[in-house]
Amino acid sequence: MDLRQLEYFQMVSRLNNITRAAERLHVAQPSVTVAIKKLEDELGIQLLDRSQKKITLTSEGKVFLKRVEGILANIEDAVIEMQDYQGLAKGMIKLGVPPMIGSFIFPEIFAGFRKIYPKIDFTITEEGSLAVREMLEQGDLDVGIIILREESKFLDTVIIQENQIVACLPLNHPLAESSKISFDDLRHEKFIMLKEDTFHRRAVIEACENSGYYPEIAISSSQTETIRALVANGLGISFLLDSIAERKKDLVGIPLENPIKINIALAWKKDKYLSVATQTLIDFIKNNFAGKVKL
C-alpha cells in the first residue's frame, strides 16, 4: 500500500467517477483503476460498488475513506509544518475564488500582497462559491474567497466586503429608468445566469420561485464579461454584484425591491494546519481589506 493508492481512492470516492478522478489527478484512467484494484486486493475487501452506472462506496469503503482522509490530511500538514520550520522565504497558497468575485476583488488583493511578498506563489482554482466552499471543507484548498450567506461550523471566516445583487438590463430596456425593480417585473424576461455551482444563481432562482415562477434561463456562463456583453447586446437580463455593475457603462444596474444582500468573505478550514504563507495572506487581508462596506 502506498500514498498514491490512497490519494486515488480518495479522489474517486469524492467524484464517484474514475474518469473524472483521473482528469483531476492528471493521470491516465488505467493507472487509477489498477491502483484501486491493488488496494482492494491487499485489504481483501471491495471498496467500490461498480454494479451501477455511478460508482459508490461500499459500507467498508466508507469506513476506510474516513481513515484515508485523516491520514492524507495529517501528511500534508506535516510537510507544510516542516517547511515552515525550515524558515523558507517562499511559499505556495492554494486559493479558490469564484469568477465574479475574482474579477474585481482578487486582483487588488493579489497586487498589494505580491508587492510585499513577491516569493509567495498562488495556485488559483476558479469555481463557483458553493464549489469553493465544499473544497475548503474537504481540505483541498488553503483559503477561499466566497459568498457567505450563513456561517459554517467547518470554516473560519472574515468579512471582506458587503454587497447586494442588482438587476442588470440593456440601456434601452423599458425598465432601464426604474429606481427599483421586483422579480415579478421580470417574469417574462430571458435570464443570463452564472453556472449552477454559484450561490448567486441559487439566490436569484429562489427569489423568482417566491414570486411564483421559474425563470427562463437562456444562457449560463462562468464569465462575468461574457454575461455583460450578452446583456449589453439585448440578449437577456442578468444579475451582478453592485460593485461590478456600477463599473459597466453599457448596461444599467437597478436595485431590487427586496434586496439580496450578501457578504464576501475570506474562509479557511478550522482544523487545517495553516502554513506561514497562508497565515500571512489571512493577516494581510484582515489588516487591509476586511470590513469594507459597499451597500
Tell the overall outline. Answer: globular
Please, how many helices? 11
CATH architecture label of the largest domain: 3-Layer(aba) Sandwich
Helix share, percent:
40-55%
Number of strands: 11
Can you summarize the main beta sheet?
Answer: 7 strands, mixed
Rg on CA atoms, Å: 22 Å
In percent, how much strand structure appears in the residues?
Answer: 25-35%
User: What is the terminal separation in angstroms?
Assistant: 54 Å
Class of secondary structure makeup: alpha/beta
Number of self-contained structural domains: 3
CATH topology descriptor of the largest domain: D-Maltodextrin-Binding Protein, domain 2
CATH class of the largest domain: Alpha Beta
Low-pLDDT stretches: none
Average predicted local confidence, pLDDT: 87
Element pattern in H and E: HHHEEHEHHEHEEEHEHEHEHE
In short:
By secondary structure, the protein is of the alpha/beta class. The chain has helices at 3-15, 18-25, 29-43, 59-85, 99-102, 106-116, 129-137, 199-210, 224-232, 242-245, 276-288; strands at 48-49, 56-57, 91-97, 120-126, 143-148, 155-170, 190-194, 216-221, 238-241, 251-269, 292-293.
Features:
295 residues; alpha/beta; Arc Repressor Mutant, subunit A; D-Maltodextrin-Binding Protein, domain 2; 3 domains; 7-stranded mixed β-sheet; two-stranded antiparallel sheet; 11 helices; 11 strands; globular
